[in-house]
Amino acid sequence: MTDTTAATTAGKTRDTSFFGHPKGLAILFFTEMWERFSYYGMRGLLILYLTQHFLFSDERSAVMYGAYTALVYVMTIIGGTLADRYLGQRKAVTFGAILLCLGHFGMAFEGAGSKEIIETNGERIEIVDEGRGSNRQLFIEQDGALKRITFDGETGDILVLDSDDRAKEPMAAVARTIPAAEFDTVIERQAIYMNILYLSLALIIAGVGYLKANISTIVGALYEFDDPRRDSGFTLFYMGINLGSFLSSVTCGILGIVYGWAWGFGLAGIGMLAGLAVFLWGQKFLDGKAEPPEPETLKKSFLGPINVELACYLAGLLIIVVAMTIVMNAEIIPDGFVGGLGIFVFVGLVAYSFMTMKGSERNRMFAAIYFVLAQIPFWALFEQAGSSLNLFTDRLVDKTMFGVEVPAPVFQALNAGFIVIFAPILAWLWIALAKRKLEPSTPVKFAIGVFLAGLGFLSLVAGIGSSGATGLTAVYFIFLIYWIHTMGELMVSPVGLSAVTKMAPARVVGMTMGAWFLYSGLSNYLAGVIARGTGAETIGGQITDVAAAKANYAAVYANVGYVAMGVGVLMLVISPVIKMWMKGDKLPDEDPLVADEMA
């Protein structure tokens, strides 16, 4: 911070305490940084935790993960609406942060873990596991001694070694082979800790729902409409998000894999507690910008002793119950239901546009609806990072760098790191191209972003093919896919949010942004469905048939890659139509909102 606390611009005195910005931005910066620290730290471990600690199948884990990330986005609509109309952003963010702390600390209660039993020819053999991630090793007790087990990478047979050889590549002789056709496995889980898991995820879903959209709203409220610092203020805020993501992917990822799940999840919870402490301490610097629109409304009776404020908090408890129920039963939710919901909302948006708008206003609303929908293929592929791509990196990538094996969750820090490096470069590039009237229009940028999502997976498929049937994929292909996807994200996320807020009429901006978050959520659920398709056969959380697993990953990733690239090309073809909708019926010089879209 600087010593200067105020500056005068255009006759107005403005707080410049935080690098030329209001001191309140510093509070929100660190609150969001720690919230994202907790979220991404937990997210990086979650799919591995589900498959290795609770021994859920790849398919069930992927759909649970998809349902969880989808609900995180969808619930921001409810949290944002309650804050806007009744609760105010300050109370909503505080309540959300408390729920997040409870949820993250709940994740640290892991129990003893699930047990997998091999049943073969009337014999029941319990599998004993040690370690996490790619360091995970499996053993069975035989003849009074612990024996290491591995799997034939092509047949899936269980190989019982003649010792408890704990080397990364065991050298002990095979003492016994259990053919894949001659055994089944059963899993025994601790019900109480499974319910703690479901409740913790539901608490995090509700907490993010109350916090995420509202803290961004407070950032905007710190600036007057004509304040030229607004865009750079949001840029600083965005850097806080990526700083939290980068730090947590490294620290929580290492602690969780090397020292234990509870350590990684516990650190994520400590991060959220730090965020809550910062926000509570710094509320005095928000200058009343996050208070309820009508404070007296909160005291009005709702149902007898329940006033409006209490009703808003009880709504959070209802969200927890609904979210817990959905996450518990994610694998039985029909995919058609989610698709039907998406179609229903789309039809509603189009019908509303036809009934309440006309001319250029309707055209711009159509453009906003297009961007809301066009994000789906990108996020469905991009969000593989926390699920199938995380599992692939853990199981089938040579992660040794400079003589040290890097835990798989740490690689999720690449996205945040690349954003920090390349976002300023891309921003400079757009300015340079705009001066030469060569900057791509928003629809073209969107098309390129979706195309890059597909291209990233095709680059990984090339890496899978180069490593043979059972070999490990070189780690630089993971760097490559994250870099390509990050460049695509920079074409889609900030560009799409800006376009939606500009194109939608002022009276329905909130509704349209709600649709944006809803379809972001549906995209995350679709990401879970795609990840489900990559599922491999596992025992004790380890792949039994490496060749089949690699072939399946390659097939699924190639298919979604080609589809996304095809969609990107189609979006490029229709981009002139979308650009025309964005202009409406007015001439360019009559419409400052879309002047920057003119080539």
Approximate strand percentage: 5-15%
Query: Over the alpha carbons, how many angstroms does the gyration radius reach?
Result: 25 Å
Order of strands across the main sheet = 8-7-6-5-4-3-9
The percentage helix is 55-70%
Oligomer: single chain
Give me the CATH fold name of the domain at 23-111 and 197-333: Growth Hormone, Chain: A
Classification by helices and strands: alpha+beta
CATH architecture of the domain at 23-111 and 197-333: Up-down Bundle
The description of the largest β-sheet is: 7 strands, antiparallel
CATH class of the domain at 23-111 and 197-333: Mainly Alpha
If you average the pLDDT, what whole number results?
89
Question: Looking at this structure, what is the CATH superfamily of the domain at 23-111 and 197-333?
Answer: MFS general substrate transporter like domains
Per DSSP E runs of 2 or more residues, the count of β-strands stands at 17
Give the termini distance in whole angstroms: 40 Å
